[in-house]
Amino acid sequence: MTQRIQVALGQVRPVLGDVGKNVDKHLEWMEEARRRGADVVVFPELGLTGYQVMDLTLEVARPLSHPDITRLVRESRGIDVVFSFVEESEAHLFHIASVYASGGDIRAVHRKVYLPTYGMFDEGRYLAAGSGFHTFQSRLGQTGMLICEDAWHVSSPYLLALGGATCLVLPSASPARNVMEQGDFGSQAFWRQLLQVYAQLFGVYIVFVNRVGFEDGVSFFGGSGVVSPLGEWVYEAPSIEEGLYTAEIDPGVIRRARYGTPMLRDERADLVWRALGRLVDGGWRG
């Protein structure tokens, strides 16, 4: 795949608990992204529901077959879309999920594996954890999805890279914390550095889309963007400001990066497998 891909970053401000209104905004922005010539538009974590759902979970949760979800999937005939919501399974488990839709069909669903339940976060109290990571083919190439906290565990992008991913899509709802002297946020600086390392280490593009707005006194910093396999921010959206921003992915950069820094080529998955087996069995020493 050599053709460059235009990606739209939907840095929205969701309305907490109003799924219908958020769906309408997603559809409006999808149409605008089409007009701008985007191939794919990505929205943030829980963009259809708002983040602090807590006791609203039963009200906002939707199965994949719900009309609110099928409306968005149906509109993916003209542009691929990644959107996120609280998904209710047939067994009535509630997951933070991201859907990749294309051509009017669902191509992939990722359910957030790592639920932060510490400090200001309480996801594990209301929601169920996903069971793993997988890759799939999309306009972005071989693609893997993460959701926010998933990326704070190095095994997540590692497994997707070993699974063949050349692009990681990362919807997020990360708060603005620790204001720094230059007006930046400590949480934002951490994300920026973390994603640069991952992109360069694994030779992948990373599409990071973080929400903005306030909920229950919590501010979300935005700062969405695209990081290249060279560890460079191809584009970084403004902090705090709601908006639809566009960036370009050049698959040729993946080829050059992986040739120049062949970390994946030299990776010893067999060694990792044996070491993890020893750790699980409690026999690491010796």
From TrEMBL:
Domain of life the protein comes from: Bacteria
UniProt signal peptide: none
UniProt keyword list: Hydrolase
GO MF terms held by the record: N-carbamoylputrescine amidase activity
GO terms, biological process: putrescine biosynthetic process from arginine
Name under which the protein is recorded: Predicted amidohydrolase
Pfam annotation, one family: CN_hydrolase
Domain CN hydrolase: from-to ranges: 5-251
